[in-house]
Amino acid sequence: MPMYEYACEACDVEFEQLVRTAREEKSVKCPQCGGGRVRRKLSVFAPRSGAAPAAPAPRGCGRCGDPDGPCGL
Questions:
Q1: DSSP letter string over 18-49?
Q2: How confident is the model over 54-63, as pLDDT tens digits?
Q3: CA atoms within 13 A on the CB side of 2
Q4: Alpha-carbon gap, residue 71 to 73, rounded angstroms
Q5: What would the pLDDT profile of 8-34 be if each residue is shown by its tens digit?
Q6: Chain centroid, CA 6 distance in Å
Q7: Dihedral of alpha carbons 28, 31, 35, 39, sign
């Protein structure tokens, strides 16, 4: 389910709202003042906290695996 960030144009409160459909988005109201003049903010993607860490970059030669660097293969 998409969670969107909004800002109220009347009282400047920022809040999050779970919105399932475009129809629901039209009825989003500010939780502070109850105003309907809200704008959706640009959000950044946040990965799940349980995500596996990225694998370390390979070292050394990509052909033979020699840790001292590229070989002459």
A1: E--SHHHHHT---TTT--S-EEEPP------T
A2: 766 666 776 7
A3: 12
A4: 6
A5: 999 999 999 999 888 888 999 999 999
A6: 15
A7: negative
Contacts of 9 (CB under 8 A, 6+ apart): 35, 37, 38, 39
Answer yes or no: are the C-beta atoms of 17 and 28 closer than 8 Å.
yes
Encoded tokens for 65: 């695996």
Question: Is this prediction's pTM over 0.85?
Answer: no
Q: What's the order of all strands across the beta sheet hosting 38-40?
A: 14-18, 3-8, 38-40
Which residue type is seen at 14? E
